[in-house]
Amino acid sequence: MSCFSSADESAHYGFSVCMLLEQYRSQLRWEQEGVVELGTGDATAIGDVVGSLPGLRVRGFDISPSSVETARANIAERGIADRYTVELGDFFDRADSGGGPPVSTVISNPPYIPAPDRDILMPELWGGVRGNDLVLQLLKAGYDNVIAAVASYSDPEATVRTAEGLGYRVVNFLAMGLDFGPYSNEPKVRRQIQQLCAEGRGWVGDDGYMVAVALFTRSPDVPGDRADQLLRALQL
Ligand SMILES: C[S@@+](CC[C@H](N)C(=O)[O-])C[C@H]1O[C@@H](n2cnc3c(N)ncnc32)[C@H](O)[C@@H]1O
Fold first, then answer.
1. Which residue's alpha carbon is nearest to atom 5 within ligand 1?
2. Which of 207, 205, 212 is nearest to 233 (CA)?
């Protein structure tokens, strides 16, 4: 499989990002600064958000050449290429390049598939042994605001506690139940998920799991902390 495809998950990511950007419009300063994105995929989720928020500019990155090609076609089709760009490459190597003013908000539905190694259906979706390597790396990358999807089976407690240790609070989140799809249903992935759940590092139901798109911030302009509510929402 060459390009991430999961309609429910992408829709939840897009709606949630849109709502969080709207709700915290002034504090996140995205009309002044724009936002960056780790993992654009086919760009449909955030393409619709860019279409509905006229002041939004997104600089996206993806390591998958076929995703970037598809994303560029979808962005062109929506007529938003002036406000949504996609570059091929590793977000962590490239997002600081470009020489523009600093951006304080990053958005992502990051890879979160847990497996013992990268040899899975779509290797670009590998999130390390516990599934949360990429979100942890994102939290350590220095952005004041991180809007990211957190899956119930990818050691969410370690993610939230690491975020706290880095000075982040969970301002708000939108959680949704998702069915196991082709990536999480792969036998070696399901075995890894079972093991994480047995260790108390993950939670799933018989047929599915939870994903929350959460706003982590270390900005004093955005008050509140719903970290414990987020963890409760992910424990099935
Ligand atoms: C779960 S998909 C999300 C795609 C899209 N945002 C969506 O929700 O439909 C994660 C995407 O991240 C990309 N990716 C993985 N590691 C990356 C990295 N280090 N830098 C940039 N993109 C990466 C993958 O190729 C994949 O397209």
1. 41
2. 212
Ligand 1 pocket test, pick from 16, 50, 64, 108 with the greatest ligand atom count within 8 Å of Cβ, gives 64
Per-residue pLDDT, averaged over 185-202, amounts to 98
Q: Is residue 13 lining ligand 1, measured as CB closer than 6 Å?
A: yes
Indicate the CATH number of 7-233 among 3.30.1330.60, 3.20.20.140, 3.40.50.150, 3.30.565.10: 3.40.50.150
Token pair 């989720």 is found at 45
pLDDT tens digits for 109-164? 999 999 999 999 999 999 999 999 999 999 999 999 999 999 999 999 999 999 99
Instruction: Please give the distance, rounded to the nearest whole angstrom, from the Cα atom of residue 63 to the centre of ligand 1.
Output: 7
Q: How far apart (Å, rounded) are the C-alpha atoms in residues 52 and 75?
A: 13
* CA 61–ligand 1 middle distance (angstroms): 8
